[in-house]
Every structure is written in structure tokens, then in C-alpha cells.
What does this fold into?
Amino acid sequence: MTDLSGKHILLGVSGGIAAYKIPNLVRLFKKSGAEVQVVMTQSAAQFVSPLTLATLSGRSALTEIFPDATNTQSAWTTHIHLGEWADCFVLAPATASTIAKLANGYSDDMLSVCFLTMRPNKPKLIFPSMDGEMFDAPAVQRNLKTLEQDGCVIVEPEIGELASGLIGKGRLPEPEKIFERVVEALLPKEKTLAGKQVVVTAGATREKIDSVRFISNYSSGKMGFALAAVAAELGAEVILITGKTHLQTPPNVHRIEVESAEEMFRETQRYFPTLDLFVAAAAVADYRPAEVYAGKLKKSSESLPLHLVKNPDILLEFGKQKKPHQVSIGFALEIQDALENAKAKLVLKNCDIIALNLAQEAGAGFEVDTNRLTLIFRDGTIEQLPLQTKRAAAKMIFKKANFFFQKSSLTSL
Ligand code: C5P
It folds into this structure.
């Protein structure tokens, strides 16, 4: 676990059902060595008890601006000191109401007062969590934009089952993920990919059968989007060439949306001469229907033979023309003879690293937010990465890629 000893976290909790996750978040912060001061709204106290948070954090959870006159420990100026004390402000869950308050400079409860006293150069992370319709409401989006302009980092909620029973965008990320984002905000970032052009392919392609149907696969694009986000944070110029997905474009990433493998190939190929690092995370369909029926196929006969032809292999084509300074990373999703197949792929496609994941493994592969990758290198070295978030896996992959860049700059000396 990352060591956050000596770091002071001011943790704002507002009143959403996702507040039930916060005791675990406080435990993670404490385990890492950080000091945590909880400030919560009155409605947050309906969902999670201040006593629970106080016990876990080792500090009383503040809910009131006005001090208890009988308690000589509390003082009217507590909030001013907290703004000075905190290395980071985290609001999780952030409800529509608290977001609106913070965006408009309200200071009518302890949480909003503390937010206003935060020093300007300190990171402020907001984790919105609410029903999907509420999250999309223009007023909420407008307020979030205002907070972003004011220098806050808005961490998008996740898509999934919500407390209402509806499926939508609004879930608070799990405590481990919130912790990871706070660590990133608190520890200095090295711009290890500054000056590099990184091209990432992501998601599934769609191969048309007729005007309304296509062949595709279960890839969500999450691994590719995590790679693009992290590469941009590391200072790279990032081009993300993606199949259709609802995922939000990460900051400072140039997104190009495509449908078919051929289209993805055409768009990617344009960058072959200039890119420094090619990460092929897309699940590209190997075959496409030989002919696309114009209009809608009718169900007139008992069977319908579908003749498929091979698609271009983007990674393989890049491998054929790769220059010595260029680095390529492929992904392999295997079911049987995984290692052998992945090693063969590395040679065939002339890549520097193959990241292997096993299709049937729980918590890895399509659609989930975590992954357990095995990295296979050109020299035959194999490295097993732990089960971790796709962001964390992306970071480890770029650390390795960086090693190739350092090597090529040494050989060119
Ligand atoms: O051969 P296989 O599809 O298993 O190889 C997977 C790797 O090759 C992935 O990195 C994938 O993005 C890439 N690939 C590609 N173009 C294809 C098929 C796969 O770039 N047509």
C-alpha cells in the first residue's frame, strides 16, 4: 500500500446512500498513514454515523459550524485551521446539493465553509454520486463545470446499478479507487511520457451485416481508456482510436471514433510514421461479412449462411513497418495455451510487450474495472502483475514502456 504518512486529508461527506462506503475509505487512509479529518453534512449523518467515522479516523467528525459552548476543545475558527492543515480536500459522495453549494460559494454548513478555506494550490477532488438522471441534469453539469474551472478534479461516477434499482451513471467508485485517485493527487507526478506521441486503440469494432445489424464482441473499452488517461497524465500527446462506447473522453486526449476494423486501421495507419508508442488494446474483429446487405435482411429462409473475410490486423501491419525507436504493446485475451499463444503473437506482430489476460478469470478482461495481466517481453521475460484497477495496470505498463525508451536513447548515444 502507498505510504501517505504525514499527509492530511480533509474528507467531506455529503448525504447520499453511497456514504456507506466511506468508513472503508477512512480505514484505507488511516492504514496508509494519513491523518483524516471528516466534515459531514447533516444529511450525511442520516446515512453514516459521525461516531463510526470519528472512531475510524481518530478525530471527531465535524458537522456543525458553531462550536459546542460546553466543549472548550472546539473553537469558532476550526475551519480556518483545517483549510491550512489539509494537503487535500476530498468530497465523497458529492450530492447535487453540496455540489451546487460549493460551485456557488455557499458557506452555510461546516463542509462548505471548510471547502472555501482550502489553500488554492491544494488538490480538491469531487466524487459525484447520484441517480443517473440527476447527474445528467443541466444544472448539475453546469455546477460541476464551474468547480472544474475553479481547479477541482471531478471524478466521473461509474455506470451500474443505482440505489433506485435503475441502471445508470452515478455510482460512487469503490473505496480502493477513490484512495488511488487521492494518492495520485497527493504524490508528485513525473511527466515520463512528455514529448512522446502515444496512439491507443480501444473498444470493440462493429462489422456490418446489413444496415441495422452488426457482429461485435463484449469489449467495453475500459482498458484502452485507462491507458489513454494515464498516458495523457504522464505528459504524452495521446490519440485514442476507439470503437463505439459511452465512456467519457479522458482530459487532454484526442478521441477518434470508428466503427469497423477497416476504419480503425485507416485512422491508426495515419500515425504509423510519427508515433512513439502504439498500444493496441482494442478487441478488433478478426473477420467481417464479405458483403454488407443494403437495407434490412428479411427472415425468409430457415438458415442464412454468412460468408466472412479476414480483417486487416492493425498491430501486425504496424509491426511490419516499425522503426527501431518505436515501441508497440499488444493485448492478448486467451482461453487455452495462453502463454504459448501470447508468446507467438509477440513474435508474429513484432511487439515489445504482450499483455495477456485470461478470459475466464474473475475480475479480469471484458467490462470489469479491474484486470490481472501477465506481461511478456521480447527477451522471454514474464512478469505477473497483481489484480488491480485498469488505471493501476496502465501505470505499470507505461513504466515498462519507458524502460524501452530509455534503452533506445542509450543505444543512440
Ligand atoms: O491475434 P489477436 O487478435 O489475439 O491479437 C490481439 C492483439 O492484436 C491486440 O493487441 C489487438 O488490439 C491487436 N489486433 C489488431 N488488429 C486486429 C486484431 C488484433 O490490432 N485485426
